[in-house]
Amino acid sequence: MTETPPFTALADDTAYAEAVQLAVDSAAAYYADGTSTIDDDAYDRLVRGIQAYEEEHPESVLPSSPTGKVAGGAVVGDVPHTVPMLSLDNVFGAEQLADWAAGVERRLGRPVTAWSVEPKLDGLAISARYRHGRLAQLVTRGDGSAGEDVSHAIGTIVGLPERLADAVTVELRGEVMMTASQFEQACAKRQAHDGTTFANPRSAAAGTLRAQDRPYVCELTFFGYGALPAPGDTSDLAVGLREWPHSKIMEWVAAQGVQTTAATPVAGIVATTLDEAQSRIGEIAAARAELPFGIDGIVIKCDLAADQAEAGFSSRAPRWAVAYKLPATEKITKLLDVTWNTGRTGVIAPRAVLEPVELDGSIVTYATLHNVADITRRGLMLGDSVTVYKAGDVIPRVEAPVVHLRTGDERPIPIPEVCPSCGDAIDSSQERWRCVRGRGCRAIASITYAVGRDTLDIEGLAENRIKQLLDTGLIADFGDLFFLTREQLLGLERMGETSTDNLLAAIEQAKTRPLSRVFAALGVRGTGRSMSRRIARHFATMDAVRAADAEAIQQVDGIGPEKAPVVVEELIELAPLIDKLVRAGVNMVEPGATPPSEEPEAPAEGLPLASMSVVVTGAMTGPLAALTRNEVNELIERAGGKSSSSVSAKTSLLVAGEKAGSKRAKAETLGVPIVSPEEFAEQVAAFIPAPSL
Question: 69 an active-site residue?
């Protein structure tokens, strides 16, 4: 069965007319100054709903309907295009893509020779006209036939040189957008100017490209996707641009000094089969979350000029190209409330409470707000319509308020004056506010985490027992556990001889845990269980970790220049606790690891997962059912592999348990091998702890 894309269902002519007006108004607002009353996904659903209604009720079609029109019919330009700048038709899955490709080949009467596969950049299409190698004019797409002159933006667009390598007269077409860093800079400039921010990179780019009277300049980025000769030009270059394959044209564009996606992780390729094209679609989709710029799909087109010419055009789109749309990662919803929580390390973090919204296949109710400085920078208020962003496995975050949708009923977000957990003072000297008591504020949470199954694994230490030990003053942190005596424990209520002996034995056993678990128990900010394993394997000993500066810490896979100094500062703060653990005789070495100052041992040969990146998802069954996710990840690493939390083109294997969900779907798209927990257990049986078999 062919996939059916979601759309807004319309009940009658009245609902249809209202939908048409909303679509027209939204398109007009977006193309005028980059604002809109609805987000892109809602607009797409609305237009698909209008189209579906018109197909069932052709007698009710309104002349103002956005269907079949470039830019929804909202834009009228005064600069004619030499060749129409048309929109693309959309498909929403592999089956629809196959149906579309089959239609192209039926029209040609033969198989397509080659497919070009490129990312669909989330920006605005423009035409850049060069005369004798110098950039002379910039024109928006407009209604496809004519666009708006935005030549005032020349000099502010990265990737669009004012001079080409060759002194040629040519028209380049491409997408203007804002990268993530450019968007942050633009929001900061607007915040400083009028106290507001842009809603999202796409609307920021749209408004910036047209703005002529702003007192500040925002930088944009250009990615070229095509080139056309000047009308009537018969030079060798003009003939080439008319006859070359699309892939060769893009090579020429890049050689002129114009930015293309060739140097990015989502570079375009030429596929000889649709299966090969589908594989590249999966790779681009998987890379989406890590890109510094937005994409909302993948463009598939006939690569050869002859195939394009034979396939032809419809009134609004080429028949030889289509956009494979990806699920929305950005929506507009309401910010209902902000709650404040103190974490186990003492960090005070705000959390956004949202009006529920479907985003990237799941319902989002909460999102991160990072810190007070972030709230201030973005100018957020309670009751705001806000843009919420999510990509891949990343926790949803509030991007910015949609200022033009404010009603006047919005209210300032209350900022806590004391720690929301203990009521003590707040240290606000850094962006991430902390309770002045640090880890002591949430000692129960900190110790509970440290003694958990995936860290020190001390049985018999439930939260109520930890509270009892804290209340009686026997411990202040988890290091004190290793100095408890039998007499002290027997003096507590509900502690008999058997339970006391069992607890002391469990504490003694915890001294033998590998360094990776001890490091994880410390709860160093910016690290978790997976990062703790990497740090322990890299440095091998706690002494080596503590001696490392920020530059040395950065050598650990996944630690960047921002996180490394935090780790160093945390280790200094935790020095008394670490010293206490050393005095208690807790192990400070990672078995099998070699310190970076020594010659590394050759990796053991024959390990079943050697050099493999493995992702585990869903509920484990069979021999793995008794293991926590952390224990499964440890198992992967003992067997020579690297555990990962997200599926990408670099994933070697997916272990898919019950209710595997989106990760399994992504792996299938990418062609990543998938095994069941039972099959995986057979593969690594020698490394599964005996009690779990």
Answer: no
